[in-house]
Design brief:
The strands form two sheets. This protein has a two-stranded parallel sheet. Strands 3-4 form a two-stranded parallel sheet. 44% of the residues lie in helices and 9% in strands. Helix 2 runs parallel beside helix 3.
């Protein structure tokens, strides 16, 4: 599981050279180690910033992650997410690394550095203050709790048998595997 990276659009604008050196070469180094150790699977945490841009209906997996005419709207941060996915796919195809990028969005929970609008709402509610949003509060996001990310990462790294899939299909969500 590879989740280490420098994060954020503003920090990526302030220091693009170090941002790319750390984030791009960090993944290349991890892929090289995966090849050398013949690791079974490499999972990389990506995000919705890998997509170039969506429309008002939200993003879907078939949306283009790259534009030939415009920079990524999330600056160097989104560009490095796109590049990491492409690098991982190249290692998968040409070096036999079983690579998977998980695109999660708006992760919230304990230890948050970026408030994502949630932290001020909760903190203001506790002290009885109103919360005002500079954008008017109409921005839509798919929020993901940090513990749900942990469950996702564990499930993505687990191989399953055809019998386990049949168990899920025939027994439904109460089956052993579906609770992961």
């Amino acid at each position: 599981m590879h989740a280490a990276a420098r994060v954020g659009m503003q920090p990526s604008l302030a220091d693009p050279v170090d941002f790319h050196q750390t984030n791009i070469m960090g993944l290349v180094n991890i892929c090289e180690v995966a090849c050398e150790l013949k690791m079974r699977k490499l999972i990389s945490v990506s995000s919705n910033t890998a997509y170039h841009q969506g429309d008002d209906h939200g993003l879907v997996e078939t949306d283009s992650p790259f534009s030939v005419t415009q920079a990524n709207p999330a600056a160097h941060y989104g560009t490095f997410k796109m590049a990491r996915e492409a690098i991982g796919m190249a290692y998968a195809e040409f070096h036999g690394v079983d690579f998977l990028a998980l695109r999660v969005t708006a992760v919230y929970g304990f230890g948050m550095r970026n408030p994502l609008h949630l932290k001020p709402v909760v903190e203001n509610a506790v002290v009885g203050k109103p919360t005002r949003f500079a954008t008017g509060g109409s921005m839509k996001r798919n929020y993901t709790h940090v513990l749900d990310c942990v469950v996702l990462n564990v499930a993505a790294g687990r191989l399953c048998t055809a019998s386990e899939i049949a168990d899920i299909v025939f027994r439904g969500p109460r089956s052993r595997w579906a609770r992961l």
